[in-house]
Write a structure and sequence with these properties.
593 residues; Methane Monooxygenase Hydroxylase, Chain G, domain 1; 24 helices; 77% helix; 0% strand; elongated
Amino acid sequence: MTIFDLINLAGGIGLFLYGMSIMGAGLEKIAGGKMEKVLQKLTCSVWRAVLLGAIITGLIQSSAGTTVICIGLVNAGIFQLSQAIGVIMGANIGTTVTGQLIRLADIGGDNLLLTLINPKTFSPLVALAGAILFVFFKSPKKRTIGQVLMGFGILFTGMFTMETAVYPLRESELFLTLFSKLQNPLLGVLAGALVTVAIQSSSASVGILQALSATGAVTWGSAIPIILGQNIGTCSTPLIASMGASTAAKRSAVVHLYFNIIGTIVFLLGIYGLRAAGLFPFWYDVMNKGDIANFHTLFNVVVTLLFMPFTRVLAWLAERTIPDKPGGEPDLTMPVLDERLFTSPAVALQQARNAVAKMGSRAARNVQLALPLLKTYDEEQADQIDQRESLIDKMEVGVSNYLVRISEHELSEDENQQVNELISFITDFERIGDYAINVRERGEEMRDKELAFSEAAYEEMAVLSDALQEILQLTNQAFGEPGSQCLEQVEPLEETIDLLCTTMRRRHVDRLRDGACQLESGIIFLDVLTDLERISDHCSNIAARLVGMRRNETLDAHALRRELHTGALPGYRESMEKYREKYCERMGAELTA
């Protein structure tokens, strides 16, 4: 083997890894938008968890990648350890897809059909088709498909380059001696693990072994320990990813390690036991690409079937290895936005959206707590509002920075749009929290100056308070469930709140003129009305943005109002009438715009 063969081998490995990487990234873009929803359905069955874990890993071409996503979801509190175990098992099966694709290169014969389905025939054409889609089309979907096809073609180009480079090794005594020594199970497992750790992919290390099979030196006896070691080596990525994560996330990574180590031990004992009994006559026979792919698949399927009834045992081992911290872990005050999820931007975006939803619910809670302070000021309740507002401010910075970090990765057009929209939602929810603080401060001012509203003003404020609580509830529900009917109710209620505020201002001016209300408290009353009306306006902004996202358009609140007032939204006028009757009758007056 000459220096040029080594250069070709290095280039082949590089092309192979790059092809696998861009193909997996493209497939993840196609499937990524649904990945989080799919993963969320893994709560009731280990079988479903295994199946979906296998499917997702088959799509993104990385068991380590799927496991890292699981660790991120466990760390974020979305997954329980029991859910993650099934996904991790399925990931080991899904990672065998690459080897099964590579084995197609062994297909041959004089038959035209067999020649056409051989990757040596069609992979260059696939790569060309992918390049055309990627370079000459602007559609993000077509470019992503092109990326997948190019990755597929580059992967096989690298594979064939490796095969050509290593072919001279079949005449190397040193190489043949080295592979004969790898029949020692401990050395073989160690070699497979180290190579996989070095390149961070069991699929890739199996592909390299398949390329080496062209030398004729890869026998069953030497390849089996290497393949088993490769499954252990792939655990290094999740273990590294779990550093600094929660206890449950670390346990998920340890489960992955235990699963592969125990499975390797069981297989080694079984295989070497069969060999000792003389039931393994092909031990020294050469393994081809198909044999390697089949054994890799067999190992992962059999071990998964063996361990599926014992998921609680794996969880118990992980809990003993990573015990709870003394006194237990404190409750999280900030939602966990795990950077490990950046490997799947669609999942990371969903977690960011969940955090924004928490901002909305906390801002609404502050409004709910602040309004009673206008009548009876409670220090403990005011402290709770201040603490929650401090958390909302921290979330604004934390979630915004997280979204910026997501945008630094390669995103689809739709994902980029989601990032921009979420940043706008953050601004609206944070402003709602600020207005709640304004109301709290007005209550404190009234307490300090020993001021009070008139009874009529308090009665009107109670009606407005109920309407405001309802619009906040509808807005948060619409944000959390974009397909819900709550969205259509927000704007009619916002219009009603505007009418309530207009009437309350007019009546309050009348009370001031008649001397039924103090001037200083009257000014505070009008300031509070302004704050509450602006909270309602921000709810309208959020609803308009959600309507625009549903239609795949860009809408602002003013544009939405113009549409609604022309009857564009089904049921809008009926909803307006319902809310006017519900709140205007309580206020005891006819309201006009």
